[in-house]
Specification:
Blueprint: E1 2-6, H1 15-25, E2 29-33, H2 37-49, E3 54-59, H3 71-90, E4 95-98, H4 117-139, E5 142-145, H5 159-169, E6 174-179, H6 180-186, H7 190-197, E7 201-206, H8 222-230, E8 236-239, H9 247-264
Parallel strand pairs: 1-2, 1-8, 2-3, 3-4, 4-5, 5-6, 6-7, 7-8
Length: 265
């Protein structure tokens, strides 16, 4: 299991300085934010060309909404995802994190044709993912579906929801990621949910129960990490959280905490 940090958690004004900070604290990779990535892809490539750090993943950042009301909004999302899948391939990242939609439904309730709007949304998403799967495979990366908690989206809240969609799509380029903060809210048992999704799991977000860095809340990481270790999980675990001040001291403390648990399990 490799540890990555989202680029916003790295200290530095330039990406080169951020990479130097990451090397100093001994992480393995960096998760990029997908917004405006095309404007800075050259700098990113130059910075990692002489570094031991790798780009672990790209976090969303595309425009539009895969489950938006208007066709143009959905097509914009598809186009933005394809563009970032290409960047992920160029950077040798695992893939692109994709959240199908945020907030409440944008599509109309078509009862009695469908029982509820989620049936319509699911059919649309599965069709979109079958299209996007071809691009993910072409670029040698994965679309990483991320379940969020019920307060951030009405759709795709649990690992089992994501597994069900991946299996319906049936494409090798569609996989899932697990976020400990969201699982802390939605899953009855985090370890069991990881076990259920392990076959398709290719990325993880780390945060404690209060969305601070691991070790600053009450989440039990030991049993979930045991599931990951025994299941042969070999991909990145990226910090997506807030770091208490003093920043570097707290970050080092959290990394030490996580590495200790990984070593013990």
């Amino acid at each position: 299991m490799k540890i990555s940090l989202q680029e916003g958690l790295l200290t530095g004004k330039t990406f080169f300085e951020k990479i130097a900070f990451g090397e100093r604290i001994g992480i393995d990779g960096v998760e990029l934010w997908g917004r405006n990535l095309g404007d800075r892809i050259k700098e990113v490539k130059e910075a990692i060309s002489t570094s031991k750090l790798k780009i672990s993943s790209i976090c969303s950042g595309y425009p539009g909404d895969l489950l938006g009301l208007e066709r143009e909004v959905r097509e914009t999302a598809i186009k933005g995802i394809i563009e970032r899948l290409k960047y992920a391939g160029e950077l040798d990242a695992v893939g692109l994190i994709v959240v199908p939609t945020f907030g409440k439904p944008k599509l109309p309730d078509l009862y009695p044709l469908y029982r509820d709007v989620k049936e319509v949304e699911r059919k649309i998403l599965v069709s979109e993912l079958k299209l996007l799967d071809k691009y993910a495979l072409e670029y040698g990366v994965a679309i990483l579906l991320e379940p969020l908690n019920r307060y951030e989206t009405h759709f795709l809240n649990r690992i089992e929801d994501a597994v069900s969609i991946v299996e319906e799509v049936g494409g090798d380029g569609i996989r899932i990621m697990a976020d400990f903060f969201h699982m802390n809210i939605e899953e009855k048992d985090i370890a069991e949910s990881l076990k259920h999704g392990l076959k398709y799991l290719m990325h993880i977000h780390l945060a404690d129960s209060n969305r601070l860095a691991p070790g600053f809340g009450h989440t039990d990481f030991r049993e979930p990490f045991k599931v990951l270790k025994e299941g042969g999980y070999k991909y990145y675990m990226a910090y997506e959280c807030k770091i208490p001040e003093p920043h570097e001291e707290s970050l080092r403390k959290s990394l030490s905490y996580i590495r200790k648990i990984i070593g013990e399990v």
